[in-house]
Amino acid sequence: MPFVIYIFTISAFALGLAEFIPIGLTDVIARDLHLSVEHVGATVTAYALGATFSAPVLTALTAGWARKRVMILTMIIFSVGSVLAALAPSLELMIVARFVAGLGHGLFLAVASSTAAALAGPGKAGRAVAVVFGGFTLAMAFGVPAGTWLGGLMNWRPMMALIGVFGVFGLLGVIGLIPGMKDPLPGNTSVTVKGSLSALLNPVLLGAALVTVLSYAGSFTAYTYIAPLLTSLTGLSVASVGIFMFIYGIAAAVGNVLGGKLTDVLGVNRASVLLIGGIIVVTLGMWIFVRHPLMMGVLVALLGMFTFAAVPALQARLIHVAHDKAPHAQGIAAGLNIAGFNSGIALGSVSGSLTIVHAGLIYTGLAGAVLSILGLILLFVQTRTKRQTTVQTN
Q: In this structure, what are the phi and psi dihedrals at residue 235, rounded to the nearest 5 degrees?
């Protein structure tokens, strides 16, 4: 695996902190700002929406830029937005700052993952994407639990500011350690901004990305409000939530590696079916066993494992689809799938909020399972359609 791919994990670590630390601190932030937990969930949604917009659209607009230049710009935007979020005096300003930080998140991961897949070469794309997202899972395993624990003991603002500091470390890594790559993606030099933007409307790519949206929405309907779920229904203390976040993060790190290997061994479609199915079973289990601490510990771990094992599988799947249907849009495909992940997180936080308001906190797992089932059905439809088309062509 080319060494440059491992450099991307530095920035991905900061991005993982930004995406998920507010989930562990939902209760703490809500109390400090005198808000309900569903309102604080909007900060998760805003970040995810920023990433959703930037991943495909800004990837298209910067298609002709040097890759290093793009990554430097994204880490500057991310770091500034993260610091402003920590200093925000109100929820409204925090939401705006989180959206700005999310803009840097989406574009960086789109560029880094597509670049890594191209550099790794055939047969190693799944593992290359897993290495990029390894920084994400390291943040999940160690950074987020530590931040949740410290934020509960002291204050949430220093923890949010620390995200910006890690973003600066990632920026320095990109500047100092990554060579001045113009663009390592094969054939990408001929791509125009107009062509890149038109690729965003490719129905096959959009359909493949929708599988990611629904699958991740199911996972994050259950996970976004995991802190109040564990304290209010499972009966755990606030301090114990950090332990459960640690368990989730460790399992996510294992899942990330497992997902990369499964993708390369089973193929993108079979691996995706297996992992989405796992998310469905686990979220249903969280609804059924919510009042059993031991079972919830197991289920939270499995949710982390299946959710992050699905990252390289679904990312490599969309890049594979782009290779067949839109060969000059592999970078755009990576951006669409990053948008899919973050759209799923945003939809999951909204779905969880609506579920809490209209049905109750206990039903977030059930609602999540329904959304992931829809994603799995769509995946079956797409693979069946592709198989029929291949047979007819032959």
A: 85, 25
Sequence-separated contacts (24+) of 66-70 with Cβ below 8 Å: 66/180, 66/181, 66/182, 66/183, 67/111, 67/115, 67/181, 67/182, 67/183, 67/184, 68/174, 68/178, 68/179, 68/180, 68/181, 70/107, 70/108, 70/111
Closest CA to 208 of 297, 332, 34: 332
- CA pair distance 146, 53, nearest whole angstrom: 30
One-letter identity of residue 69 = R
Give me the domains of the chain, ranges plus CATH numbers.
7-393 (1.20.1250.20)
Helices (H), 54-90: 59-61, 67-87
Q: Residue 219 carries which side chain, given as an amino acid letter?
A: S
> Which amino acid makes up residue 186?
P
The structure's pTM equals 0.78
Question: CA-to-CA distance for 337 and 114, rounded, in angstroms?
Answer: 11
Q: What is the DSSP letter of 2?
A: -
Sign of torsion over alpha carbons 174, 180, 186, 189: positive
d(CA 253, CA 265): 19
pLDDT, tens only, 137-175:
788 778 888 887 887 777 888 888 889 998 898 888 888
CA distance 45 to 50: 9
